[in-house]
Model the fold of this input.
Amino acid sequence: MTRHSNAPNLPSPPSHAQFLAIPLEAIDPNPRQPRLTVEPRELAELAASILHGGLDYPIKVRPHAELKDRFQVSDGERRLRAYRLNREAHPEDGRWQAIPAVVSETSDAEMGLIAFRTAFQRSSYGAVGIAKQLKALIEQDGLDREAVARSIGKSVDFVNRKMALLHRMPEALLEAVESSRISEGHALSLKGIPEAALRERLLKGCMRGNWSRQDLRERIAMLDMVAANPYLTEDERKEYDGQVFRGQITKAELEADLEAIRQDETGSTWGAMEPIYQRLNASQRRDLVQFLWENAPKELRIQTAIHLDALRRRKSP
Done:
């Protein structure tokens, strides 16, 4: 390694750090680096930019904790790979044998945070990757959620929502989010479905039908309505489930159907109750009205009030 004295355009390192030109073969990746792959075209463009315009900023490294005269990248993995690409293309050019680097002591937690921040800013991975890195930083490294949030310019609520993606999330949902077949919002909605078979069926519906999250929420609510209705036969329940999955019935239509079925099964309309009412004596009528008012559905209570008022009006002189 040599002290880098021929780089007037590079910023000065902090007082506690060293500024060296380090041989490329002496530098290892950041063990906490989540960005494991770089698009070849992107890397080639960066290498060409450095080839013709030079390196704007040195990379940052720390001494390897176990291997003497070796270093680990804390920031600048892409620039290091671009240097190596230029060395492969120009093996006789001494410029590409060593790279300017700021060397400073950096903890494992700091290495993880730097790597995460760099990859996050470049949108290098999806929601599951973000959640896993946040979990490692907070639970393994003991970093404060607020500090992690500040480092990426986000709120603590953002951090909490991302980490919720991993909390008891079925593996199939994580895989679907990671492969971009559903969004994290879909996964969080599906996570609340306790029955594995229904959850899997809804997941397949999301992926095949390209449902929005609102579509999914509405279907879940409709399926709950069907499941909770005590008046449906098993065949009717299966038929309505199928219509919900196929998008052949709206929520309003389902509500109307289920209410009609309930009324048919219970006779809970004033038209069905009036003949009974007319046969009762005054005391029994009061008891019936009291019972309806305390136990009947809202619609029947309203019908009862309207019709009793009409009866009173007819009897009045």
About this structure: The longest strand covers residues 18-23. Strands lie at 2-3, 18-23, 27-28, 59-63, 71-75, 98-103. The radius of gyration is 34 Å. DSSP finds 15 helices and six strands in the chain.
